[in-house]
Amino acid sequence: MKYKHFAAIVAATLVLAYLAAPVVKLNEVALTVVVLIGVIMLLVDLWQSLHSKGD
């Protein structure tokens, strides 16, 4: 179970690092909103998968 939490944290961190560069470099509001929506969806999916009963 600890491995799943660690893997989820690493995955979320890598996605944030990957998406942060274009958002900061381009500095477009629309791109920032789309990336934030995607990150929120990622975090909700990780939360649901970590708290699911089936494994």
How would you describe the overall organization of this protein?
The structure is a single chain. Helix 1 (2-26) packs antiparallel against helix 2 (29-50). The mean pLDDT is 92. The chain has two helices and no strands. The protein starts with a helix and ends in a 5-residue tail after the last helix. The radius of gyration is 13 Å and the shape is elongated. Helices cover 85% and strands 0% of the residues. It has 55 residues and is an all-alpha fold. The protein has one domain (2-50).
Short description:
It is built from two helices and no strands. The protein is mainly α.
| Broad structural category | mainly alpha
* Shape by Cα distribution: elongated
User: Percent range for helical residues?
Assistant: over 70%
Mean pLDDT: 92
Q: Beta-sheet strand percentage?
A: under 5%
Alpha-carbon Rg, integer: 13 Å
Distance between the termini: 10 Å
List SSEs in N-to-C order: HH
Main β sheet profile = none
Number of strands: 0
Count of distinct structural domains:
1
Our count of helices gives 2
Oligomeric assembly: single chain
Which ranges are low-confidence, i.e. pLDDT below 50, for 5 or more consecutive residues? none
